[in-house]
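User: Could you go from structure to sequence for me? I need the amino acid at each position, not a summary. Structure tokens:
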């Protein structure tokens, strides 16, 4: 029977859930607090430049294909994908860099050049990683984390040792070269934890990296959000932006509705996203949406089911205290994925020596990881990531100019001030100039920043986390915050703090899993 389902947030998880539920014939409405949909994957447009504010690495293309196939569609119905070659480049010092190509053969050659005999070991390592990928991504991650038994299969039983060893240990068993070790430990950073705290089974991320490759949707990751929006609308989903949910109503232990602030309808025209500059002023929208119709005041929405794709911790604060499943002490003990300091820079020239994705691993990896996970302080000499999407995608910057995104991973909840942001920009841009042997500072047309305070204010993110709750052994599958509330009937959760975990592909899967649980409950 057709039900009314209200969804909080419009990130990948919420949009995916909305599509599945609307496909089943339900009346689905999304309520998003921000002016634009997409959550952490929003986009900043400025002076002819276009930046993805959040995700930039399109990995695991099979997960996106599987999502769209569930609706009889393909990614190419919505956006144009290309495989990047090189996939990325890693700087270890002034004249030291390794380029990762778009095939295992090319990567083996790069490894062999660095350490004789390493390509053979790499092939074996990736073969095992592929095997893990086939088990994990094709099957396990599509289980809703309801029971530990979901993880017990004849194949996982054979892999049990890999749950009690770590990526770090397994990589170091095979490789001695520090640069190769760092490259092989890099993919698990997407899972939000240190390689020394991530089960070896997660080597499937290495297969995602070297086996499946790095892709780019023309126009940026936001094209995926737009594709999902288009699909959702075609299925009848209604989307309301500028509509923060203030409260979830619970009557007799059942979610019955929500209090929503100042509803407005979604404008289809492209406009800039209001992200913060420094911590002081906010970027103004350049285009006034035409069809926004504020109704003013707060509105009570009734619903048969509520699904929240907003950060789990925040969603629970919308409930009366005794209806929350997890106490503050629960969240405080959890390992959160890092927060980040981001810069979006318009350069007045093409930048040399860089790839679309470029990593700067020229400082002490361990010291930076310790600052994030153990000491919760700003790192002395941070590693950083830089993306120059205009190297391969002419649509994201004016001719002969470059769009640059810089990211420094940080401990959640560290102090965030304009002075600290600037200090760290100077630190990395000085190193960047030295390592890539060029001056870029005098070519900066503008720069915007986004950090801990913005993650909190823009997304209601717990401690300003960027990527949600890390996938450590004790925060995997059924050990993660549940998709279905244990205390409030008809209330469900999705997204990167829940099952299966952080990243765009897992968020998509999370939406599918939560929608599946709702559908299952309706049939009971
Ligand atoms: C800087 C950065 C880089 C990243 N890089 C990558 C990458 O390269 N590849 C990759 O795969 N992943 C990457 N990730 C992770 C990936 O972006 C996230 O895992 C994913 O986008 C999370 O989606 P979500 O739907 O779970 O949550 P979100 O995108 O956070 O969506 C939640 C939504 O809920 C809304 N909301 C919150 N509170 C309320 C409320 N009270 N009422 C209404 N709405 C509310 C928020 O505004 C938001 O729109 C990155 C993340 C960040 C931040």
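Assistant: Here is the amino acid at each position, in order:
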């Amino acid at each position: 029977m057709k039900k009314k389902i209200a969804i909080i947030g419009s990130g990948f998880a919420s949009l995916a859930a909305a599509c599945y539920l609307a496909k089943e014939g339900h009346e689905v409405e999304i309520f998003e607090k921000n002016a634009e949909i997409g959550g952490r994957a929003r986009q900043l447009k400025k002076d002819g430049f276009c930046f993805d504010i959040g995700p930039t690495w399109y990995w695991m293309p099979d997960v996106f294909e599987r999502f769209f196939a569930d609706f009889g569609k393909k990614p190419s119905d919505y956006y144009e994908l290309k495989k990047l070659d090189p996939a990325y480049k890693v700087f270890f010092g002034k004249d030291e860099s390794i380029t990762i190509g778009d095939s295992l053969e090319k990567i083996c050659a790069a490894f062999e050049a660095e350490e004789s005999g390493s390509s053979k070991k790499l092939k074996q390592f990736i073969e095992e990683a592929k095997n893990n990928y086939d088990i994990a991504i094709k099957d396990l991650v599509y289980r809703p984390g309801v029971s530990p038994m979901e993880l017990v299969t004849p194949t996982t039983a054979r892999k049990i040792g890999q749950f009690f060893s770590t990526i770090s240990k397994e990589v170091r068993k095979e490789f001695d070269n520090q640069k190769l070790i760092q490259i092989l430990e890099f993919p698990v950073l997407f899972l939000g934890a240190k390689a020394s705290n991530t089960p070896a089974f997660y080597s499937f991320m290495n297969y995602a990296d070297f086996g499946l490759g790095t892709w780019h949707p023309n126009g940026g990751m936001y094209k995926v959000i737009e594709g999902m929006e288009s699909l959702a609308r075609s299925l009848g989903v209604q989307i309301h932006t500028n509509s923060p949910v203030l409260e979830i109503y619970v009557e007799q232990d059942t979610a019955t509705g929500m209090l929503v602030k100042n509803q407005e309808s979604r404008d289809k025209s492209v406009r800039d996203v209001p992200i913060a500059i420094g911590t002081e002023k906010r970027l103004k929208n350049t285009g006034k949406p035409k069809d926004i119709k504020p109704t003013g005041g707060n509105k009570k929405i009734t619903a048969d089911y509520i699904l929240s794709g907003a950060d789990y911790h925040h969603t629970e604060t919308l409930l009366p205290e005794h209806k929350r499943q997890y106490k503050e002490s629960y969240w405080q003990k959890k390992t959160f994925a890092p927060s980040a300091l981001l810069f979006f820079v318009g350069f007045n020239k093409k930048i040399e020596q860089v790839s679309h994705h470029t990593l700067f691993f020229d400082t002490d990896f361990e010291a930076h990881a310790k600052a994030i996970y153990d000491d919760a302080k700003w790192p002395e000499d941070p590693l950083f990531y830089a993306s120059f999407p205009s190297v391969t995608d002419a649509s994201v910057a004016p001719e002969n100019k470059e769009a640059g995104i810089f990211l420094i991973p940080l401990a959640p909840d560290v102090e965030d001030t304009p002075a600290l942001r600037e200090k760290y920009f100077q630190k990395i841009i000085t190193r960047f100039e030295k390592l890539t042997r060029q001056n870029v500072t005098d070519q900066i047309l503008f720069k915007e920043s986004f950090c801990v305070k913005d993650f909190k204010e823009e997304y209601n993110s717990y401690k300003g986390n960027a990527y949600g709750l890390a996938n450590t052994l004790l925060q995997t599958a059924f050990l993660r915050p549940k998709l279905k509330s244990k205390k409030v009937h008809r209330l469900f959760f999705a997204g990167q703090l829940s099952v299966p975990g952080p990243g765009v592909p897992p968020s998509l899967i999370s939406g599918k899993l939560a929608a599946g649980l709702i559908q299952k409950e309706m049939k009971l």
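One structural detail worth keeping in mind: The mean pLDDT is 92.
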